[in-house]
Amino acid sequence: MATYAPQIAWYLDRYHQGDGSTAFHGLIQHESEAIAELESAFRAATDTRLRVFLLQVIWQHRHQSVIPLLAEALLDCEPQVWKESLDGLVTLASPASIDAMRSARTRQFTKPQEAEEFRLWLEEAIQQAERLPKGHKEEA
User: Fold this and answer.
1) Within its chain, how far is the Cα of 108 from the centroid?
2) How does DSSP assign 23-80, residue by residue?
3) Which residues contact 49 (CB under 8 A, 6 or more apart)?
4) Is the pTM of this model over 0.85?
């Protein structure tokens, strides 16, 4: 199995140096086999901006295999992360992505206003995904 770690590290260095465009486009060009390593980088990252960036790179590969990660990211405490996850799930617009969003309806919050914001975004995302043809893939 090929490892993409050196290339991913190089593009993440570009990202950290402020060249997000080069990093994004370079990581998107990687084969789908790199997704697992990108997921590992997402899980290891602690910086919210980096996590959002990695999540976007991952779902932009347009593979249904990333739905479990996107579902996991819906539970993130950072709104930027769960909003990016919703973007990916809507873009994938499959029965599995819609199910992942519906399952998030049971998510618990400690602050009512956080719960309300999440529910509004979630319901809008579900409606959008339901209106798209199943397996729809928007242009990048």
Assistant:
1) 20
2) HHHHHHTS-GGGHHHHHHHHHH---HHHHHHHHHHHHTT--GGGHHHHHHHTT-SSHH
3) 80
4) yes
Tokens of 125: 């995302």
5-131 carries CATH number 1.25.10.10: yes
Domain boundaries, the chain: 5-131
**Contact assessment for residue 27 and residue 14, using Cβ atoms and an 8 Å cutoff:** no
**pLDDT, tens digit, for every residue of 6-41?**
999 999 999 999 999 999 999 999 888 899 999 999
Q: Has residue 140 got a pLDDT over 60?
A: no
Burial of 34 (C-beta count, 10 Å sphere; 0-12/13-18/19+): buried
